[in-house]
Amino acid sequence: MSGLTQVALRNLLAHKGRLLMTVVSVVLGTSFIAGSLVFTGTLSRAFDGLSANTAKGVDVRVSPEGIDTAAPTESSPGVPLGLAGTLAARGDVRAVQPAVTGTVALRDGRGKVVQQVTSPVTGGEYLAAGHSLDPAGTPIVTGHAPQGPGEMVINSGAAARLDLPTGATTQVVTGRSAGVTTMKVVGTYSTAADTGAYVNVLFAHDTAVRLLSNGTTVPYIDLAAKGVSAQQLSDALAKQYPQYQVQTGDQVRAAYKDQVDKGLTFINYFLIMFGVIGLLVGVCIIYNTFSMIVAQRLKELALLRAIGASRGQVRNSVVLEAVVVGLLGGVIGLGVGIGLAYLLRWGVNKWGSGFPDAGLTVSWWVVVTVIVVGAVVTVASALIPAIRAARTPPVAAMREQDGARSTDLTARGAVGFGLTVNAVALLFVASTTIGTGSAICVGVSGFALVLAVIVGGPAMVEPVLGRIGRWLTATYGAAGKLGATNVARNPQRTTATAFALVIGVGMVGIIGTLGSSMHKTVDQRVDTGMRSTFVLQSPVGVMPADTVSTIKNVQGVSGETVQYVLPAKVGDDRMTGIGVDGTLSDSFHLDRVAGDVDPGPGGMLVDQDTAAKHGWQIGSKVTLVSLLDGSPVTVDVTGTYVPQPNLITGWIVDSSVMNRLYPSGKGATAGLIAPLNIWVNTTPGADQASVKAALQKALDPLMTVQVFDQQGVKDQAATMITSLLGVLYALLALAIVIAVLGIVNTLALSVVERRREIGMLRATGMLRAQVRRSIYLESALISVFGAALGLVIGVAIGAAMVHALRNQGLSAIEVPWTTVLYMLAGSAVVGVIAAVLPAIRAAHTPPLAAIAEG
User: Fold this and answer.
1) I want to staple 249 with a disulfide (CB 3.0 to 4.6 A). Which of 32, 58, 207, 578 is the partner?
2) Which CB contacts under 8 angstroms, 24+ apart, belong to 442-450?
């Protein structure tokens, strides 16, 4: 072992405090990277697991033509239940499993109806190992399998959350049942699909058929092959039954995965972004710390040069220390990051966001990435200042009193300004386009703004904080002046310290703007679109037949318009439209483009996007074909309107057309049509609160009907939006915690670096309280600086993203000003909290000892 190697290792052990703070910086950086990668990898693997467990054991699925079997609906013509017996008799079929499934409403252990908000409440048939295509069957955890007509089992997660343990009694209503059925929970079971909000109940075969099917058809039939491959069986059945859709199990699973991936596209973009952010923040914290450490050791390194060490030896000794610190910090950071990911997963599941509940996934590449990044970034962070230190003449280095460097910031400011101008230009381009092109412009502009902060941020410190610094001097005297001076003295370090907060708070601005804009869009649509006083909806998707007659007897109700789900074939496509029984314009406002605002007998309204897609115009004749018997009904396009996603879109016909497609209630019997919403109007002068209470009381025995006023519709949408953004806010919490810890660590190192200066101030009469106050003010300034930059960037990017998503239904841009103000004020408070320990240490600096060390 060479002499300088020994010096390097002994130097690490001799300065344990400095070693600890250096390792902490690497731990902070790598733990953010590890936490982000493990958490996002866990979510990704959990959803992949759901896909893998879908249609488990299924070789072939037979379903109605044109139905998405990855998400079959109850408004489907289905396949005859009798076909299952015919298929079971084939020699190339080992087992047959008709799908008996549907949505369910049930009461929890406190008697409250379980709401479908973030995850569905479903029911199905219990299948033991010998009867299921899945060899494992449905494993019972407690109790036993359902056997009689009044028995059911429920997934374990839902049983615990809903207070429905084995032995409990509840009430159940399904889309097919004629009324409320009392059920006893006889057991709980485990499933890979269990999530924080998922609810699924299973019944014995006869009960499931009675409650969840019409007794003649099922959504699809699954098969297991015998003696042939899945593809061979699929080909044979497709040839024999051309009227049905025949898919292999692999095709069904792939379709389900595609559907999940599409649904998660929005989330995935942010998860990838957080991985990149984790890397940026980690690199910044580590580089900032090591730059300070090497700057503090200039005299020590100069002494090595003076006694004969070469530049390369000095540089290599620093690099060796960095390798040791990087590897140690990377390993510890990996462990801390895994712990943080566990806490995030626990919090998200506790929140009931509807994301799959699965164990942590720590991939080998995550382990390697975190440790390698920790080592490489630490070495790179140490190498640049080490080279600079090695090139500094020994005598000059020994005269250095401070690690700060006076640097001409003009060039950095010019580059930062250029990047900002380009970013703003891209945001302007994004505001004039929609879709992919706009999204790309937003992404590139965001990257340019981050680079602008990295490069040009130091040039912004004095202009941004100078006025605040003068106010601090006037308010807090010497302590305020010292705090402001310390911030401005080394603008590179100030920017690097604040960078993690810039990123974290910037993401708060982006997601806060997105969330506020989503809320604003929904609120505007409800305020302008909903003319009725109340809307009735069903958590099972189907309302009891006597719902309308029930509300007619409620005092204060003047009328209702029933909105039906109405499937039909248009040409070769299966489409789902809306059937209206009543006057639509009395209950709902449509933004008319052309023609009428009510379809009228034999007419059809259609939103402008659907009309453009199919080439329909006012007066166009469209033939709708019944899915029940194939009978055609021709209608005239009488009007077009602006679509309102999540409220009303597609084509709309009145009850006369609906009854011609599915006469005498046959559509309802077959499960093809069902009331989706009932818009309820009240008599003039009626007390809305009293009418709502009366409606709820009258409908409570039906269980499946919920009453919402305009605010209730908004609140329901707000719950879904909050759940959607919950995982992103969890990651943001991680980013901000790491940023604050980074500030603490940098301030602690800064105190060490300024030990002689603080000692001189104490020796000349500065009180301990004044020293502490100066550190508090310095930290608060850094925090406010980072938060202000982050919010400006975040709100700008968030507003541009909302515009880019206009074709996805976002129509209003809303800046969360309350959140912005709270974040700015909170950042100052956080800065003071982050400075507590460094300030106490600075205040207790012994004056004479500190001066002697200089």
Assistant:
1) 58
2) 442/797, 442/800, 442/801, 442/804, 445/797, 445/800, 446/793, 446/797, 448/419, 448/420, 448/422, 448/423, 449/419, 449/420, 449/423, 449/793, 449/796, 449/797, 450/280, 450/503, 450/793
- CA dist 42 and 339 (Å) reads 13
One domain for residues 503 and 543: no
Backbone φ/ψ region at 87: left (φ over 0), alpha (ψ -120 to 50), beta? alpha
| Bridging pattern class, strands 181-189 and 151-155 | parallel
672 and 783 in a single domain? The answer is no
DSSP letters for 38-90: HHHHHHHHHHHHHHHHTTTT-SEEEEETT--TTS--SSS--EETHHHHHHHTS
Quick one: tokens of 374? 């920790």
Q: Is residue 365 part of a domain?
A: no
DSSP 195: B
Which of these three, 679, 708, 737, is where a domain ends? Answer: 708
Q: Is 377 left (phi over 0), alpha (psi -120 to 50) or beta?
A: alpha
Instruction: Clarify whether residues 723 and 668 are in a common domain.
Output: no
Query: What's the half-sphere exposure (Cβ side, CA atoms, 13 Å) at 806?
Result: 15
Within a domain: residue 244?
yes
648: closest CA among 517, 552, 535, 812? 535
Instruction: List strand residue ranges (DSSP E) for 486-572, in order.
Output: 534-537, 557-570
Contacting residues for 2 by C-beta, under 8 A, at least 6 apart: none
- By the 8 A CB rule, do 419 and 456 touch? yes
Asked whether 508 and 650 are in contact (CB, 8 A), the reply is: no
CA distance 272 to 280: 13
How many domains does one find in the chain? 3
What letter represents residue 436's amino acid? T
Q: Are residues 842 and 826 in the same domain?
A: yes
Amino acid present at 792? V
Domain shared by 142 and 62, yes or no: yes
Determine the structural domain holding residue 698 and report its residue range: 534-708
Question: How far is 422 from 128, CA to CA, in rounded Å?
Answer: 63
Q: What does the alpha-carbon distance between residue 585 and residue 529 come to, in Å, rounded to a whole number?
A: 10
Residues 552 and 576 in one domain: yes
Q: What is the mean pLDDT of each run of 10 residues along the chain (854 residues)?
A: 60 61 73 77 69 75 72 61 88 88 85 70 82 77 91 91 91 76 92 72 90 82 90 93 89 79 62 63 68 68 69 75 82 86 72 60 82 82 72 60 54 84 82 70 81 84 77 78 80 79 81 84 80 80 73 85 85 84 82 85 89 90 85 91 78 88 61 74 87 88 83 79 70 70 71 73 80 84 86 86 73 81 82 79 71 58
Question: Does the global pTM surpass 0.90?
Answer: no
User: Given 197, 213, 248, which residue is the final one in a domain?
Assistant: 248
